[in-house]
Amino acid sequence: MRRRQFVARTSAAVAGTALSARRVLGANERVNVALIGCGTRGRLLANLVKATPGAAVTALCDVYDPQVAQAREASEGARAFKDFRRVLDQKDIDAIVVATPDHWHGIIAVSACQAGKDAYVEKPLAHNVKESRAIVEAAKRSRCILQHGTQHRAAPHYREVQEMVQSGQLGEVRYVRIWNFQNIYPNGIGREPDANTPAGLDWDFYLGPAPLVPFNRARFLGTYRWFWDYAGGWVTDFGTHRFDSFHQVMGVDAPKTVVATGGRLGLKDSGEAPDVLQATYEYPGFIMSYEVCALNAHGAGGRTPDMGYYGMRGEFDRPHGEAFYGTSGTLISDRIGYEIYPEMEPPPRRGEREAPAAGPAYRSERKVVKGRDTTDLLVRNFVECVKSRQAPLASAEIGHRSTIVPLIGNIAYRTGRKLHWNAAQEAFEGNEPEATALLGRQHRRPWTLV
């Protein structure tokens, strides 16, 4: 049998297995959801599932027993598991929420699709580009619902921003700036020695496909994001949300080139990802600039009294956002709203007669719109799609396209090269063996993607 025939038959078999394993839900039946990854974010998502009509959290899974214990306080009666594979074996589980560290997303999401379970996967979609693509293909083959946890997709104010930009209300937008700032100078995540594994933690299972290393507190729980083995720093954490919104607003899905610079310049800790990063992406017809700074929380200018900007800790900082610079105005958005700062008409050219003073002439109107975090709406959309089998707001393909942006930005930083991205082939153009190697990775045995 030729390889192509084998792959086609195997894919069909996987899809058939997934379809036969899926419970057929009636319109009024309850969706039973399992939480895999019971940390702070996972527990928040579980509470939102419980608050959604027609859904319940009936299983909890984590390699660290104290996290499961915390989650059970709000999910009384939920079964507890340490191995996600046992969760996927449960016939009465309809869907899962994946809130593990990034390096587990690919294996768990693909396995869920193979088991016929729908999945809500936190951002970024996966640890690397190849794993992210594998999730997309698994969802297609199995016909499972897969929602990416980029909740901006459910926000009405971002749809307003999309309409304004794409209708030309800002004029021509040829430059976009996105930033994530937070001041954790000087100690960052700290510098702790290796230690004994805490009671109730399966450290080997936690590491999973990542290299085997001694237990270190910095590589665990919330601070794992600063290590390449498990994540990609703030650009994959905070940035993925904003890249997704930027793609939605501008109506694009892939850059042409990327170049990045930065380093671990100020923090006195054990982290690996840069505390200062600047990446420039070229898209058809415009440029997008992305910035990370862990040494300062100011972010960008343009502040309105009584606006509570996302993540702000004082009255002066604006630590996260997206700025769309148009010829008629600048629109600055974030998770809790947006503002428009109008552009003035240009002054008369030399030699032209100046019109009588009639006050400043603006090309657009000042506007302030308040919004809110809409994770609850995205969770609700997921539950509705599990029942209706309609496409979710943040599909696997949408999440994949948004996740690629920070991943190749990190690759440009780590290689020190300007990279040309072929979106159709999901590969770098030219001879880029070092960059190409970082699109995926070898998993530690016995873990594989499928």
State the gist of this model:
The protein is α/β, with parallel strands linked by helices. The protein has helices at residues 3-21, 40-50, 65-74, 84-88, 105-114, 129-142, 156-166, 203-207, 234-250, 375-388, 396-415, 433-437; strands at residues 31-36, 55-61, 79-81, 95-98, 118-121, 146-148, 173-181, 257-263, 276-283, 286-293, 320-326, 329-334, 337-342, 367-370, 419-422, 427-428. It has 2 domains: 3-153 and 377-395, NAD(P)-binding Rossmann-like Domain (Rossmann fold, 3-Layer(aba) Sandwich), CATH 3.40.50.720; 156-372 and 408-433, Dihydrodipicolinate Reductase, domain 2 (2-Layer Sandwich), CATH 3.30.360.10.
Account of the 3D structure:
- This protein has 450 residues and is α/β, with parallel strands linked by helices.
- The protein has 2 domains: 3-153 and 377-395, Rossmann fold, CATH 3.40.50; 156-372 and 408-433, Dihydrodipicolinate Reductase, domain 2.
- Helices cover 31% and strands 20% of the residues.
- The protein has 12 helices and 16 strands.
- It has helices spanning 3-21, 40-50, 65-74, 84-88, 105-114, 129-142, 156-166, 203-207, 234-250, 375-388, 396-415, 433-437, and strands at 31-36, 55-61, 79-81, 95-98, 118-121, 146-148, 173-181, 257-263, 276-283, 286-293, 320-326, 329-334, 337-342, 367-370, 419-422, 427-428.
- It has a 10-stranded mixed β-sheet with strand order 14-13-12-11-7-10-9-8-15-16. A 6-stranded parallel β-sheet has the order 3-2-1-4-5-6, with helices on both faces.
- The chain is globular and about 80 Å long.
